[in-house]
Specification:
With about 400 residues, the chain is α+β, with helices and mostly antiparallel strands. It is about 20% helix and about 40% strand. Strands 1, 3, 4, 6, 7, 10, 11, 12, 13, 14, 15, 16 and 17 form a 13-stranded mixed sheet that branches. A 4-stranded antiparallel sheet has the order 2-5-9-8, covered by helices on one side. Keywords: Signal.
């Protein structure tokens, strides 16, 4: 019972010291780095973290989920039973849904499979926050009203944990799961809280490696700062387009740096010693180029994301007579072929290929590409304009 009480106490402490971000649209869930939920003097010797976007069947067609796979090597000065896990809000919009946003948990501790248990935090958070004397001691500044707000927020969350029987010395944990992130108009966010690495004894990972495998998705990853003042320097292993651009902050002046990537094959890779992140891992999958994701005008290498013609392509049927007069036949040809370019069509026409090659998202993959209903609607609308000029 003593271990369970310690576990519950540290769940509560973790609730109040973890900062999880919500999405402006439909909030799903965030992945989380596992942390010790009872007193621990265990250090992380090495960690290999793998993020992979994988297509699954969604309500309105194929969608991506984030598959997380991690291999840890821990150093324990003594043998003992430890509770390890993470806390995350579950999904919904204004009201929280009952959908299982996390699934396919698989955990192996020193070669043996263990079960991952999940509970709503309603079971852990007491009604009277003022009674949390342990939490008051833990924080130098205790704000009662803020504590109540956070307790009300996090009680809608889940704690996922498993029991690990550590031996003295080196211990290996292999841990994996899937989650569906958060959805906006034209983009999906897949966030992962890894600053909680500081909860382990050494507050860092001695040998750290991370792989991001986006598949065919166009992705954006804001620059990630580490506590040593340096930034993660992503390397492309494979073939595709990657480059940095700058976006404006929403809530203050200034800009921040974002890595954009569209790969034909391969993955993004980073490896370092003594990894201790200051920023969390945030990845946006840009599903729809004309959605609500705000691109910079161009990247450091000069890649573009949109221009007047690509913007006009999906609103061709609404163009005024004066706007139509300004479009040349070459312009209409570009607009008609824009959906094919987004799908990765390898143009034989050099002018078309050269034109679309200035966009970071254009990765030619072949002649046999798949278009959606909206794409064919664009093509038909532009064809009507082209045919009207032949009369």
């Amino acid at each position: 019972m003593r271990k369970i009480r310690i576990f519950l106490l540290f769940c509560l402490m973790f609730i109040f010291c973890t900062n999880l971000l919500a999405n402006d649209w439909e909030f799903g869930s965030e992945g989380g780095h596992i942390v010790p939920m009872n007193v621990s003097n265990i250090a992380i010797k090495s960690e290999k973290l793998h993020f992979k976007l994988e297509k699954v069947k969604g309500e309105y067609g194929p969608v991506n989920e984030m598959a997380v796979t991690v291999r840890f090597v821990f150093d324990s000065p003594e043998a003992g039973e430890k509770y390890i896990g993470f806390i995350t809000p579950e999904g919904g919009n204004e009201e929280w849904d009952e959908v299982n946003h996390f699934k396919n948990f698989r955990t192996i501790v020193n070669g043996k499979s263990v079960n991952t248990v999940s509970y709503r935090l309603t079971d852990f958070v007491p009604k009277d926050v003022k009674k949390l004397e342990e939490v008051k001691k833990y924080f130098k500044e205790y704000d009662e009203e803020k504590a109540k707000e956070e307790a009300d927020y996090y009680k809608r969350s889940y704690v996922y944990y498993f029991k690990a029987n550590f031996k003295k010395g080196e211990n290996v944990i292999e841990h994996s799961y899937r989650y569906d992130g958060s959805g906006g108009v034209g983009y999906n966010d897949f966030n992962y809280v890894w600053s909680t690495i500081s909860k382990w004894k050494n507050q860092k990972v001695d040998d750290f490696e991370v792989i991001v495998e986006p598949g065919s998705a166009l992705i954006a990853i804001p620059e990630i700062k580490m506590k040593n003042g340096k930034y993660i320097d992503w390397k492309l292993v494979g073939e595709g387009n990657i480059d940095y651009g700058y976006r404006n902050y929403y809530d203050r002046d200034g800009q921040y740096k974002v890595l954009y990537a569209k790969l034909k094959k391969g993955y993004l890779h980073f490896k370092t010693k003594n990894f201790s992140p200051e920023d969390e891992f945030n990845l946006s999958e840009i599903v729809y180029l004309n959605g609500n994701y705000y691109f910079p005008e161009k990247t450091e290498k000069g890649y573009k994301y949109r221009d007047d013609l690509t913007k006009a392509a999906y609103s061709a049927e609404y163009l005024t007579a004066d706007e139509l007069k300004e479009l040349t036949n070459e312009d209409l040809k570009i607009m008609r072929n824009y959906p094919y370019a987004v799908a990765g069509y390898d143009f034989s026409d050099k002018k078309l290929k050269d034109y679309f090659s200035k966009f970071l998202w254009y990765i030619p993959i072949g002649k046999n590409v798949e278009l959606g209903e909206d794409d064919y609607e664009v093509i038909n609308n532009v064809d009507k304009i082209i045919n009207s000029r032949k009369k």
